[in-house]
């Protein structure tokens, strides 16, 4: 099945039939995400695979991709960041059942048959947003009016490994 991803689904039915849904959701259906962006995003590419696993968990594997425009925290210009997020959801009926889910599943408690799928996808994309969006150092622009100080540039060259520190910071986050 492909096409626009429906706003509401009945997960158990889709699990029963091992359905794969592939399609798009317009980002303008996601107000919480849109509010954080510097420019409207296009369609979110979505692929959802429903299945009951060997342990009997009603599961969904989701893959979401969209480019989003954010503000670079170094130069304050726009930076387009590709979001690419995958998650495994386990559908359960109670808090108790959620606690017993294998740890690789993110529990989603179904209080009635229908699930707000767009909100779930939006939640995943919000989690995938970088905490501190930035251009790669080579392409990042300096703030308007910035004049590089030649002494400072020389100093930077002499420092042993400014990038290894950044790389380590990135790894640690
Ligand atoms: Zn920048």
UniProtKB/TrEMBL annotation:
One GO-annotated biological process of the protein: ribosome biogenesis
Stretch list, region Disordered: 139-158
Keyword Ribosomal protein appears in the UniProt entry: no
Keyword set, alphabetical order: Ribosome biogenesis
Domain of life: Bacteria
Xref: InterPro entries: YceD, YceD_bac
Record-level GO cellular component terms: cytosol
Functional summary from the UniProt entry: Plays a role in synthesis, processing and/or stability of 23S rRNA.
Similarity comment text for this entry: Belongs to the DUF177 domain family.
The name this protein goes by in its record: Large ribosomal RNA subunit accumulation protein YceD
Organism: Halopseudomonas xinjiangensis
